[in-house]
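Pipeline run #58 for the internal structure catalog. This entry was flagged by the ingest filter as a single-chain record with no existing model, so it goes straight to prediction. Upstream metadata was stripped on purpose; only the residue string is passed forward. Reviewer on rotation: M.T. Logging verbosity set to normal.
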Amino acid sequence: MFELSPHGTDVYVGTGPQYPWGGLYGGQIVAQALRAATLSVDADLEPHSIRAYFIRRGDHAEPVRYEVDRIRNGRSFATRRVVARQAIGAILNAESSFQRPEASPTIQTVTMPIVPLPDGLDQTSWTSTFDKSVVPPGQVAGDPRDGTGRTTAWMRVHEDLGDPDDPQAQLLHRCWLAYLSDDLPTESVIHANPDAIAAGAEEALFCASLDHTIWFHRPVRADRWHLYDFTCQHYVGGRGLSFGHVFRDDGTHVATVAQEVLVRDARDHAP
């Protein structure tokens, strides 16, 4: 899914399938950019964060060229910039940070919400590559919003991704988390938008992801159920900020995600 072919020093080429809405899926490009960045660092360095800006819509019919810039190599950390390009120009700019494993106290202050288990929920995935069980609005225990501006779902990849303790397999698990984490933020912003809440108005909206940030806190097992919980924190100037947490099914907090989403009337101009 995230395979890349080398095309010179620190340059890689990847492709992506056609998605139901046309074009390339943002999570696909972010995951491949993370993969490209990782190919340029030492094997003992782990990605702990990535921030990506979506510049233009990608074309699924054309390969994507990933150009890696080795910004910094330190004793503990390394920084990489990746620009994804197609014929139209740059479609994504991403910066990733890597760290060598370091012993420290482990503290978790975020608690996984109490929700129904995935097996009892409807499957709503738009692709055969992963399962998605959405928690219905109002079924997140103690949620004062009663579902407004919040989207919560269990997700897992169908394919066995390998032993998460193996560094190469763990990279694949993190790439898949990057892929999956782009699926829900837009929905949380739409559910907070008063124009979208109006009956039938959601179909009249134009939505576009502007950026996407992930912080990896602990090892990931993307081929097992994880709970992705996103809430819209702010909406102004047509931009909604969605903030999310990713939990293992035992409540362990493995990642934090943030995304800003543009929401407009579909009759307005695209960005």
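catalog note: The helical segments are 26-38, 167-180, 185-192, 194-197.
catalog note: The mean pLDDT is 91.
status: ready for reviewer M.T.
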